[in-house]
Amino acid sequence: MASPIIHIEQLSKRFRKREEKTGIYSASDQYITALDNISFDVFKGESVGLIGRNGSGKSTLLKILAGVYPPTQGSFKVDGKIIPLLESGIGFHKDLSGYDNILILGRILGMSIKDIRSKMDEIVDFAEIGDFIHMPIKHYSNGMVSRISFSVVPFLTGDILLVDEVLAFGDLSFQQKALQFLKSLHAKGKTYVIVSHHLNSLITLCNRFIVLQNGKYVSDGPPLKILPEYYEELLLSKVEHRNSFVKMDLLNQRSIFFEALFEMDGIRFLEAHILPSKSGTNEFESNEELVFEFVVQSSQKHNVDIGIIARDIMQNLIFSISMGQSGLAIDDSEAKHHVYLRLPLHMLNAGVFFIHPFLLNIKTKEYSLSHK
Known about the structure:
This protein is an alpha+beta fold. 22% of the residues lie in helices and 35% in strands.
């Protein structure tokens, strides 16, 4: 078996708690445990996403690997040269130009002045700074400073890239450029460890997630195996996000059923679920389609539109599909009506989505959405 490129064994980190009294900081006898006895290995070519709530120890771990902090207990071994990108604008001087700050950052990250100057045009082009390169960075926007911070990285030579919040660098267009660069590293067999709260982006970047919680190592594995459990811990404790089909055994279920169904004007959702994939499971290939089956019943005559909306982790609306204005004519015979909606998966990027069924009375325009 190959040796790990990063080996972490029973690693702990404590910080002495500092208190502020009348404007003066003083050390106390209390300690804060940032990392608590964690152990794991990273192998050459792996792309690892460190995930967890704020304060779980992710950034502290990267700083220990980069040599910024020593561990309090335990040990770690790195077999290769590390490229740390831990904070936007680190080492920058606001009164110096972008050009001079690139020289400083390049030297901090191990490049020679000769190499930096030979790559300067390419760095400036990657950063999309243009004529602002000779202007003091105190006149830059935060996004411009962030772009310079990241733009040196593609021209560094190293074995392991450590990145803290990759999507904090620049605007959306530059973030996509940064993501494409990281994907190219993975294609070349390079190793990187990334901290980010943008989990849908991490899914496309990483082949492994490690979850930290309160400084402890919690779980480890492929992203789509780890995320259901992580989301249950992170979100389902909040009533507004409760969605009972997201459970730790989600990927072992043959079909995904929606619970806590609802009714409107006597129209009842009796059942709603996603049909299994071609392989008979609920794991789908990008060339397949999701088929949603709804079973409805009514004690009155209605003409209704039935559909779903999907939201991302931040509860932003991603897409909506429905039967349309023609709707479904329901009689008052208490008969069960089956409705099928099809969604081609090639229309979606990789990610985790929360699905909410809805009913619309086409005549009265009354609308009801399941928030479960």
